[in-house]
Design a protein that fits this description.
The chain is α/β, with parallel strands linked by helices. It is built from 13 helices and eleven strands. The longest helix is centred in the first third of the chain and has 20 residues. The radius of gyration is 21 Å and the shape is globular. This is Myristoyl transferase. GO terms for molecular function: transferase activity.
């Protein structure tokens, strides 16, 4: 009897270890186009894993948690991943999960209809984000100088994403390069108007990226494969069944703080997707270096750390093109 009890205890202990190994620690951000990534945790049991999600204010914060060994997977915009890799963080970029998601919005009471009209104006953006890179590229290709200090054609004001809307509403700044759904909110509430969607730079539509730690991929590859299949399934659900996406994002992520129109406009400008290319990440890296964003002493070479084999395998298994 004692022997049977010991065997049973041993089996239970082994099951406990296995169960613990199946937990995936995910870092995510609170944006509409990050919704499919957040939804992974809801369907994770069907994939044979448990996902513990932590939500961060911005991608650089999530990457700090990766660096600290607190996360296995991070959903961030590309520049945060690039900066982390440049600093020596052992991560691999494994997928894209949305594209676009940026908009240059001016005050509704000002006559700003083009980037050139920003001369002499104050423009808000979140420091270090993909919007920061897009703003720098747009201003430069329109012949405007810029700085966070007075004296240039455009003065940059650095604020967090929600604070940008408040500053525009309060008329403390003249325009914002904003993420979704905040840019759609500013327009739908009437205090902002679209100047442009900033996709005419070499970056095109910026891809939001998923990274995994090299340790996670190397030591727990079967779990990484399960997670990736879960990501593809969640994304397919959000693309094929937008009503599920809307309900989840509006109710679970934003607790009713965004309207149907806010969500619809946001996702129209930041559709869910799966893919990313080394070429896209290399172009983004080069522009970051050009404009001093991320301040990288040794910019990473995209083809060395953008690896989509897990994604390709998952898409094939689920018959997703």
């Amino acid at each position: 009897m004692l022997k049977k009890t010991m065997v049973l205890a041993g089996l239970l202990a082994m099951a406990g270890v296995t169960q613990a190994e199946e937990v995936v620690r995910l870092g995510n951000l609170k944006f509409a186009h990050y919704g499919a990534v957040s939804y992974i945790k809801e369907i994770a049991p069907k994939c044979g894993i448990k996902v513990e999600e932590r939500v961060f204010a911005k991608g650089l914060d999530a990457m700090q948690a990766v660096i600290a060994g607190e996360l296995d997977v991070g959903a961030v915009s590309s520049e945060a991943a690039i900066s982390a890799r440049a600093s020596g963080t052992p991560i691999t970029l494994v997928a894209g999960f949305a594209k676009g998601g940026a908009r240059l919005v001016g005050r509704a009471d000002l006559k700003i209809s083009s980037v050139k009209d920003l001369k002499g104006k104050k423009v808000g953006v979140t420091r270090g984000g993909i919007q920061d890179i897009l703003l720098a590229a747009e201003l430069a290709q329109n012949g405007l100088t810029f700085s966070d200090q007075p004296g240039k054609d455009v003065q940059i004001i650095y604020l967090g994403f929600p604070d940008l809307n408040q500053a525009l509403l309060g008329k403390n700044i003249d325009a914002i390069m904003q993420s979704e759904p905040y840019s759609s909110q500013a327009i739908n509430k009437g205090f902002g108007k679209e100047i442009i969607k900033p996709y005419d730079t070499p970056i095109g539509e910026p891809v939001r990226t998923m990274v995994m730690t090299d340790k996670f991929i190397k030591e727990r590859r079967p779990v990484a494969e399960k997670f990736m299949r879960c990501f593809v399934e969640a994304t397919r659900t959000f693309i094929d069944k937008p009503e599920i996406a809307e309900k989840y994002v509006r109710e679970n992520m934003f607790k009713g703080q965004i309207t149907h129109d806010d969500f619809a406009d946001a996702i129209e400008n930041s559709p869910y997707s799966y893919d990313v290319t080394a070429e896209h990440i290399q172009i983004t890296t080069d522009l970051m270096q050009k404009y001093g964003i991320g301040k990288m002493s040794k910019p990473p070479v995209a083809k060395e750390w953008v690896k989509t084999d897990l994604l390709d395998q998952a898409k094939k298994a689920l018959n997703v093109k």
